[in-house]
Amino acid sequence: MTILIAEDDSVTRKLLESILIRWGYVVIVTCDGNEAWKAIQDGNVPDVAILDWIMPRMDGLELCRKIRSKHFNKPIYIIMLTVKGQKNDIIEGLSNGADDYITKPFDRDELGARLHAGVRILELQMDLANHINKLEDALSKVKQLQGLIPICSYCKKIRDDRNYWQQVEEYITRHSEAKFSHGVCPECYKNIVKPDLEKILAHKDNR
Amino acid sequence: MSIVKNLNAIIDKDEIMERVNGDIDLLIELMDLFIADYPKLLSNIKNAIIQENSGELKRSAHTIKGSVGNFSANSAYNIALSLEIMGQNNNFSNAEKTYIQLEKEIDLLIQTFDILKRRILYDNSNC
């Protein structure tokens, strides 16, 4: 699990980095929004981004918006670092794509709990994305029979999109995963096959 | 120059130790980082006041506020917060006076770090 830190204050940056490394995360450390955005664009796409609110060059809110405006091959969980009592900042951050926030100076236990919640959400999102991929993959392989199918009332041939009349089994084979094994039902045996066989035998006897 | 008489009047040692999870080496590293960075942080604030650059005053005061907050240096934190609000409100009437207060408070904080470091080294040598 990779965490990107964007924080201009060296003390907070070092403290965060030390805690996260000790907890077993891979940490990408950047000093401002520009540097963080460059790192992401260079392919260091993190699972979690902890962004300070006020930074030189590019602030945390702008960075948050930039991250959300681009499509990455995995979800990024964004935690904004803010100060106590800045309710409007929190609302603005969450409205602009942040997933959570933590107040500075941060409490280590609270940081840990919020990170665990973030990781849990990321894992759920990844699971969901995997299931959707599998379903889409399965759907692409399934040919579907749907809509109004024109069929001849007498011979039961079906007219396809190109205006060709096809046998029912040929049409269904082309439009679904079904395959046919041919046999004779008892009624057809009685009405068609048996009389035919009797005719053949009678013809043979006459010869 | 003011002299630190009571370390706990400047910082909350217990809170700091909790923040670094008792990691003395990390605490010393954080103090050294602040000692290396604070002249630049103060100078950014001073320049912002001289140039009456409200955006820069807000940003640079915010940075030093975040930094001293990690050491639970409440007095320095509150002075930096005042400067940040002055920047936010584009009000420079008390900025210079408040900046001098911040300089004094940071000076006390640096002395406190020195005392704290010596205590840590003393404690470790007696272990």
What report would you give on this structure?
The complex is a heterodimer of chains A (about 210) and B (about 130). Chain A is α/β, with parallel strands linked by helices and about 210 residues long. Helices cover about 50% and strands about 15% of the residues of chain A. Chain A has seven helices and seven strands; from the N terminus they run E-H-E-H-E-H-E-H-E-H-E-E-H-H. Chain A has a five-stranded parallel beta sheet, with helices on both faces. Chain B is mostly helical. Chain B has one domain: Four Helix Bundle (Hemerythrin (Met), subunit A), CATH 1.20.120. Chain B is built from six helices and no strands. The radius of gyration of chain B is 15 Å and the shape is elongated. The interface of A and B includes residues 22 and 108 of A.
Outline of this structure?
By secondary structure, chain A is of the alpha/beta class.
